[in-house]
Design brief:
The protein is α/β, with parallel strands linked by helices. The protein contains 10 helices and 9 strands. Helix 2 links the parallel strand 1 and strand 2.
Length: 319
Amino acid sequence: MQRPEKLDLQDYLNQQTQQVKQQVGDKRVLLALSGGVDSSVCAALLSRAIPGQLSCIFVDTGLMRLDEGDQVEAAFADKDLHFIRVDAEARFLGKLAGITDPEQKRKIIGEEFVRVFEEESEKLGDIPFLAQGTIYPDIIESGKDGHENIKSHHNVGGLPEDLAFTGLVEPLSLLYKDEVRALGTMLDLPDYLVNRQPFPGPGLAVRCMGEVTKEKLDALRVADATVREELDALPTSPDQYFAVMTDTYSVGVRDGKRAYSPVVAVRAVATNDFMVAEYVHLPHDILNRISQRITDTVPTVSRVVYDITSKPPGTVEWE
């Protein structure tokens, strides 16, 4: 389906509400609810369109940000939906062991997500529909809708052919990120969800270069939390900012001894639609404080660098 040249969000909401009702009927729908912007807005729209028919599964992959699993569960604890949390860290890390290619990592994570949904849906009874918070940039970057492939998204083209659902429900698939946020406000979602930092479907796996291990992820979680805490405090924060655990090692000094440890990169961009982005000119005193805090609190990190690449030629994510 082609995106119209002009899109009115209220009309879009009304159209998608009716379309979902027609597609689903009185059947039940299963949604991956990460607590991110896309899945949260998708859940809110589906709750309005088909109240009482939505089950939401939060898959704790072990690839989440610091304390995010507990935060997501707490945020939806009082919502009128069936919330299920699945601890799948060991399962995902096992599948990713030894894998370094970013496209392969994305495919593995996407397929494993679906397998978890299938298993959980069997426990819940007949749930024929799988909902996803796919948005238009996902489709464009995955080479769909007549566009050149840039990178695969786990929810576009990464689904196995033997998907055990009758169909997919993707009510946000023609929206850009800013439109998704605006729709979330229209659906009365709280600001802390609507304006939450964007987070890729494969999680920290695509911000952890090379093989994904628990040790690297735990270090990255602390570094990333530091970056977000510092930039959250700015009068005007960038549109997206995070840390990346690179697969590059450098010599450093730790406790008066030589150390050979990974390099962490910091990424901060300004953008309207996430199709084009400019790196943010952060003050050096802030970058210096971020570097000192990360190297002080993450002993396995030797140094911190700042990514000054815009999109294009780079992407916002490193993988």
